[in-house]
Amino acid sequence: MYSYPARVPPPPPIARAVVPSKRQRVSGNTSRRGKSGFNSKSGQRGSSSKSGKLKGDDLQAIKKELTQIKQKVDSLLDSLEKIEKEQSKQA
């Protein structure tokens, strides 16, 4: 009679990254890490240079970039705290 092609099973579902639920911040208890809060040796990675170590200039450039990132994060956290205070006043 009729020749039907074999049915292809559907592809498996795409695994999605699990996003942690947003936790409420406790206002008034915001502590930020200072320079001593990070262990500088724990995050070392290999380098493509021949000696396998970063040069002083490279380290200074990385330190400068990290300082800029930290300033931006601190600024964003301050802005977020202001927004949360405004929202709590309105509620």
Structure description:
The chain is mainly alpha-helical and 91 residues long. The protein contains 1 helix and no strands. The longest helix is centred in the last third of the chain and has 35 residues, at 56-90. It is flat and about 70 Å long. The relative contact order is 0.09. The model has no long low-confidence stretch (mean pLDDT 72).
Class by helix and strand content? mainly alpha
- What's the mean pLDDT score? 72
Helical content stands at: 25-40%
DSSP summary: helix tally: 1
Q: Tell me the distance between the termini.
A: 72 Å
Keywords: Coiled coil, Ribonucleoprotein, RNA-binding
GO cellular component, one term: nucleus
GO molecular function: RNA binding
Coiled coil: 59-86
Secondary structure elements and pairings:
Layout: H1 56-90
Region (Disordered): 1-56
Biased composition (Low complexity): 40-51
Protein name: Heterogeneous nuclear ribonucleoproteins C1/C2
In short:
It is built from 1 helix and no strands.
Give a quick set of tags describing it.
single chain; 91 residues; mainly alpha; 1 helix; flat
